[in-house]
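Hi V.,

Quick status before I head out on leave. The structure for the redesign project is tokenized and pasted below; the design run finished overnight.
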């Protein structure tokens, strides 16, 4: 007899079923590691994102890439169906859902913890139903009232990211008196809208929104002052991965480094953010950034 099968009438088998894989990602938000910065892998199911647009725009290639990140150790996989790059065209909700819901369903089944990167409450609700555990909303100051109600009702973690304007208008809205003070104040005001609707403080994950209505200098200033955001008492998430300000920094012979040549610099920013106590980083290259988070955990007083 197969030693893994129970003999008839003898109750449960003494040996457990074989474990084909041991998920490294926690399936529940509550089980995420707390001894290091959490790594959120980026899965853009879009034809037009700035660094990986078009690479994962079929459902199969998106699921395969999600699984690759999962096996590389991603704690969370952030699935989005609308590009947020400056000037990007808006996608209607039906198309957004067509792109992401099957991907979320398949990756949830594989045991991954998923967030949905969306500005739309309707899409967020369906993504939660399909297996997503948290909402990552880049709409910033123009959040949909229905999103506030959804977060209150479903009691899920919610990434509240700072952005002024839309993908089309945000680049022209980067005038600040003091970028750290102003972003903090605007995030707090927005957060209070969520509180007023009954959202609990521990649901809120704050993100200063690097590259969203901020120029390079402002991004660096925010990155250097993450501790100010930590003081608000919420988890802090940061997204630097392959962003334009890194390309500008790495300019060679007058040419900014292309997105795919920005991964090493991204890893360096992860180490810096993690050492400042960031709860999470949103990245393309999961394995390298996970290493950086582990290194930083040995240095910081988390
Ligand atoms: N950046 C992008 C998209 N979503 N979400 C959060 N919370 N923070 C970010 O900084 C952020 C985001 C744009 O980058 P991509 O096009 O590489 O996804």
């Amino acid at each position: 007899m197969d030693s893994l099968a129970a003999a008839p009438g003898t109750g449960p088998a003494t040996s457990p079923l074989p474990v084909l894989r041991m998920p490294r990602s926690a399936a529940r938000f509550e089980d995420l590691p707390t001894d290091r910065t959490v790594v959120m892998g980026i899965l853009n199911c879009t034809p037009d994102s700035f660094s990986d647009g078009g690479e994962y725009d079929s459902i199969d290639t998106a699921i395969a890439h999600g699984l690759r990140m999962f096996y590389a150790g991603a704690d969370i996989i952030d699935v989005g169906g609308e590009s947020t790059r400056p000037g990007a065209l808006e996608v209607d909700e039906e198309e957004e859902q067509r792109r992401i819901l099957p991907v979320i369903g398949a990756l949830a089944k594989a045991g991954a913890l998923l967030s949905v990167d969306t500005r739309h409450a309707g899409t967020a609700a369906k993504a939660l139903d399909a297996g997503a555990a948290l909402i990552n909303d880049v709409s910033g100051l123009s959040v949909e009232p229905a999103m506030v109600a959804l977060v209150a009702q479903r009691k899920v973690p919610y990434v509240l990211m700072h952005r002024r304007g839309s993908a089309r208008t945000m680049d022209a809205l980067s005038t600040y008196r003091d970028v750290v003070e102003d972003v903090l104040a605007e995030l707090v005001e927005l957060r209070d809208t969520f509180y007023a609707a009954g959202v609990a403080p521990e649901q809120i994950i704050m993100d200063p929104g690097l590259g969203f209505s901020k120029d390079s200098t402002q991004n660096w200033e925010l990155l250097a002052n993450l501790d100010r955001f930590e003081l608000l008492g919420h988890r802090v998430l940061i997204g630097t991965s392959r962003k334009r300000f890194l390309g500008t920094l790495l300019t060679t012979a007058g040419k900014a480094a292309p997105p795919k040549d920005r991964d090493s610099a991204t890893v360096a920013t992860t180490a810096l953010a993690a050492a400042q106590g960031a709860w999470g980083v949103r990245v393309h290259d999961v394995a390298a950034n996970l290493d950086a988070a582990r290194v930083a955990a040995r240095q910081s007083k988390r």
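Above is the designed sequence. The domain at 29-300 is CATH 3.20.20.20 (TIM Barrel).

G. will cover questions while I'm gone.

Best,
W.
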